[in-house]
Design a protein that fits this description.
By secondary structure, the chain is mainly α. Helix content is about 55%, strand content about 5%. The protein has a two-stranded antiparallel ribbon. The chain is globular, with a radius of gyration of 16 Å.
Length: about 180
């Protein structure tokens, strides 16, 4: 997966303007990855614990709702990817700086990595995004399994997330406040 990420880095500007050749290759490659997961992951309905295709999705699903669907799915997933990349660093799974690499690629692709929904608060002051973890656990059938990064292109599955680290990762994403 690292070579694919590196290819994305070299083609980011062309992909951002929907250039035909790299876009066709991107779509084909992603379809192959998805089909390989279905065929060889033994989990065509993503009910088991191996969910590499869910990277960035626990936050994305909640952000879509919190934004009243102002965020499209891909936009919400981009925020979720950046958030989970930073969380991976803060939790000690991913080397410092690799999160910045993910964030920079997403920005070069044209994604905005912040939306006011990221900072939505419940009446008790708790980030509403955190409720997305429990909703994702229910979506998965009871056990929370979140794919984070161990390296670029290498996932690691975790079953708990620290709310303080999620909040810190969100601060990192906030325009003008993160690195």
């Amino acid at each position: 997966m690292r070579p694919f990420f590196e290819w994305l880095e070299t083609k980011a500007e062309a992909l951002a303007i929907f250039a035909s050749e790299p876009l066709d290759r991107l779509i084909r490659h992603c379809a192959i990855l998805h089909m390989r997961q279905i065929a060889h992951g033994g989990d065509p309905f993503e009910r088991g614990s191996v969910r590499p295709l869910d990277f960035g999705h626990w936050a994305a699903h909640k952000l879509e709702v919190l934004s009243n669907y102002d965020l499209r799915h891909g936009e919400a997933v981009a925020i979720g990817l950046a958030l989970d990349a930073r969380y991976s660093v803060l939790a000690g799974h991913l080397a410092e700086g690799q999160d910045q690499r993910v964030k920079a690629l997403l920005e070069r692709l044209g994604f905005e990595l912040w939306h006011p929904a990221c900072d939505a608060r419940a009446e008790d002051g708790r980030l509403q995004l955190l409720a997305g973890l429990e909703e994702f656990r229910a979506h998965l059938g009871g056990e929370l399994t979140v794919t984070l990064l161990e390296d670029i292109g290498t996932g690691i599955e975790i079953h708990t997330m620290d709310e303080a680290l999620i909040a810190e990762a969100l601060t990192w994403l906030r325009p003008g406040r993160g690195s």
